[in-house]
Amino acid sequence: xxxPLPASGASRVRAHGEDAxxxxxxxxxxxxxxxxxxxxxxxxxxxxxxxxxxxxxxxDVVQEAFIRVHSARRRxxxxxxxxxxxxxxxxxxxxxxxxRRILGLKLLTKPMPDMASAEEGAxxxxxxxxxxxxMRGLQRRQREVLVLRYFADMSEAEVAxxxxxxxxxxxxxxxxGIAALRVAMEATR
Length: 189
Prior knowledge:
Layout: H1 7-24, H2 30-51, H3 55-71, H4 79-109, H5 118-136, H6 140-151, H7 156-163, H8 167-188
Helix pairs in contact: 2-3, 2-4, 3-4, 5-8, 6-8, 7-8
Region (Disordered): 1-23
Keywords: DNA-binding, Sigma factor, Transcription, Transcription regulation
Protein name: RNA polymerase sigma-70 factor, sigma-E family
């Protein structure tokens, strides 16, 4: 059976344990990372340059690698492993950068949806305003039938049920409404 240590011995063991932990984490101090940055920044930049093609991305990758090593410094336990961890991080970040570029290129090669130019958009807005004005000039039933049929995308039967009129009336109001709209729109041009 192990006898418990006296209080002064326990604090000595704890202090010794803390010293051992500090010694294990020696390679991860901020001072060591600063020294590593000063000594190896250029070589890490060269490594990134071999993997990437533009200097700005290389600098971003190396700086991000140092940030990540600084954030994970508790996991890196020795000076020798710090540089290896940095190199591996530069390689991984370079790969990620290339993957994002490739994905971006794939997306760029897809045709963009047809978009109206600013002039076309303005013209469409004017036409829409003219259409709304022309719709306001229709008889109430014609306007209701056209709105339900063409804007709400209802079938003739659905419009008839909604308005409580026959399908024949829906056709008649729709036909007359379109004719009146055509005349009104021609007058605005």
